[in-house]
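User: I'm putting together a small comparison set for a docking exercise, and I want a reference complex before I start. The sequence is below, and the ligand is pyridoxal-5'-phosphate. Could you produce the 3D structure with the ligand included, as structure tokens?
Assistant: Of course. I'll restate your input first, then give the structure tokens for the complex.
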Amino acid sequence: MNFFIPLSIVALVCPHGVDAFLNPSLTRFSCGTVRGRDCFRSMVANRSEDILDADVVKEPAFAGVSRRSLSVESFKVMDVLERANELQSQGKDVLHCEVGQPESGCPSTVAEAAVSALTGPPRQVMGYTDAFGLLPLRENICQHYLDKYSGVSAENVDTSRIVVTTGSSGGFLLAFTACFDTGDTVAIASSGYPCYRNILGALGCELANIGINSEFKITALELKEEIERRREMGEKPINGLILSSPSNPTGSMLTPGELKDLCQLCDEENIQFISDEIYHGISYGKEEATALQFSNNAIVINSFSKYYSMSGWRLGWMVIPQELVEPVNCLQQNMFINAPTISQTAALKCWDEETIAELEKHVEKYRTSRSVILDELSEISELDPENIAPADGGFYVYVDLGENNVAPGLGSVAMCKALLEEEYVAFTPGNDFEDPSGNLGDRRFRISYAGGIETAKKAMERFHNFWPTWMERVQAAK
Ligand SMILES: Cc1ncc(COP(=O)(O)O)c(C=O)c1O
């Protein structure tokens, strides 16, 4: 199928002309109510089948811009961050409750290790490492599993199966590419972390969106229902499942029993389970379980970005089944060579006693901020407590406004925009996390409390003042 749109038509449809499409860096402008990139996207809406069509892939729509890249949604929290930063640079007192980025820097032991590695003596070269990363770091990771979780076999976490990655995001690309082919179906939770959807889409995978249950999670029960529904409807089977527990955005956690059932179901149904455990270490009383306790086939992905407070160091890891060692090694060699050597070197300090003591203090701060937010939300009578996700782990509170608190054009997307423009408080609208074919994205929103206790307090004060004025607007629009 040929798919070529003359540049003149693009220029007509999008007032900003073709330049924006020829230069991906020009995609941040507003194009009526849609962005420039969306303007193009709306013209190629539902063209995902094109990505699957080898003939089309060979023929680019425009020089230098692939259809694949144009099919990818923005990571909306980064759009919110960009606008929040813009307001901040204009001198506004912006409260950042949008990104999941710890306010604290990396642990002091890690910073010192980085400085001494760079300055010496002896001054380290910081050349390439093995594709899977520094062996001592992989040994520490292996030990971490053996120390923290009961029943993980040493074989499952052998250093030969541990891959140090460029953040967990680098791990997603490696895992998805190693496990799935174009056209494969991968199940994700809705609500869930947006980049799963966006990266899988870019790789030409199809998505099975599974709605979360009343406890804001998906368990073996919901997966089984979807497997059976697809069988009955004659739809393609599910090849993979990716989930995070604790979840971003809901903060819900699978119990060890629920995780075990999910691992077993995936093994029985030949579904490659990818367990994103990036928020492990940040939880408030519930037991954390790893898929490595229950399955030899699951892939576990983790990162230094959250608990270890090293988001910009771009360092994460995966534990993979034996069968994937060779393919992932080849992919890592070609795609990344290795994760940043300076970050790997410094991260060797991550499990020192002093480091853990510092990191545990951060968790205490998250616990306080979490209470501030949950208490403030409970004061808002219009919000149904059942519509506030449990926030058992991670550093997010996810809220559903409910049907009564929205009006046409005045859902959570407009609310987050108004809150940012009027009160300089940045929350993330739910459309980052929800199945785009439904309407929940415009009813839900996420508050991040990774930015510190003072930020959480001030943000909730401003939200409290804003809320009645917002409700008046909603009522007037009904
Ligand atoms: C669930 C989840 N997985 C992965 C990531 C990406 O993290 P990294 O910095 O390790 O790439 C995030 C970031 O917010 C996340 O929330």
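Residues 100, 167-169, 193, 244, 248, 276, 278, 303, 305, 311, 316 surround pyridoxal-5'-phosphate (CB under 6 Å). The chain is about 40% helix and 10% strand.
User: Thanks, that's exactly what I needed.
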